[in-house]
UniProtKB/TrEMBL annotation:
The chain crosses the membrane at residues 47-66, 95-116, 166-186, 216-236, 248-277, 289-313. It holds the Pfam family BPD_transp_2. Keywords: Cell membrane, Membrane, Transmembrane, Transmembrane helix. It is found in: Cell membrane. This is Branched-chain amino acid ABC transporter permease. PANTHER family: ABC TRANSPORTER ATP-BINDING PROTEIN, HIGH-AFFINITY BRANCHED-CHAIN AMINO ACID TRANSPORT SYSTEM PERMEASE. InterPro entries: ABC_transp_permease, LivM-like. It is a multi-pass membrane protein.
Amino acid sequence: MKSTHFTVLRTSRGSQAALLGGCLIAAAAAAMPWWGESNWMREFNQIACYFIFASMWNLLAGYGGMVSIGQQAYLGFGGYAMLILANLFDVNPFLAVPIAAVLTALVAIPVSKLAFRLKGGYFAIGTWVIAEVFRISFSNVPAVGGGSGTSLTALAEIERGTRESVTFWITLAAVVATIGLTYFFLRSKQGLALMAIRDSETASASQGIDVGSVKLGVYLVAALGAGLAGALYFVGNLRISPDAAFSVNWSAFAIFLVMIGGLGTIEGPIVGAVIFWALNKFFSDYGTWYLVGLGLLAIVITLVFKQGLWGYLQKRFAFRVFPIQRRLEISGAHVPAAAAEPGPVKA
């Protein structure tokens, strides 16, 4: 007689090799200030901020089922919080970046009380309205330049090379942290609870999941990440204005990155960010035609590859760089007949 043995696997050799490769790339990238050009670091800062913001949107919508088109409210708030701390309170701009992200999460607590009163499409539109309220509010604050915005004067005394290098290292660390923390969160019990809520809030509640607490936690994490992206973006940009900070284009580009790469995958925003960077690098000079092209590309990919490019490859080749699912490996071994009696199987 044979007995069947079950082993729950959460990684594979391919994913382990990919993770090792990613660590080596990150280590090599950390040396860029010594061998790269300054414009490379500026480009990395820009696309990294888009990636962080898109990853937070993906966590909120792709894994949590809360589709928002107003997350730019928190991105803009993070940028302004960093500027206020640096310009008005003499906080080191680089130290102000994580503080601004935390302040953004704190602001999201009362805002969530309002946003969570809305469901479905009303939630999406409501978040956009909230972002507009943020934009109008900061447009009426003279201390931060009002509607025309202002510059980050606190960085004027820092030498340019030092400023660019430190900004690059902080941004790189933020990218690694975003990927790593998202990965380990989604592999945790809270991550499983979040995906269960996305599929059915009623069923999740019936299984003992505290739906409200899980949704609030993810909402605050997404706000913190958006605030971090905003603070990093405007540290690199050196100037902020309400129209730039709270533009709905932030959400549009985040949706583009996620839908192109793959909704509900950690790898999707990475793939989307690389594609977006390449398109922006070579075709942005075409103006409005560039935006039309982005829209057409998004339509074509969503029609042909409904799960996004990485989603298609993942389904086609069953390969995941960041596996969050649990796989069951079955193996047989000879055992005495008495031990092979049927019974409940526990994995």
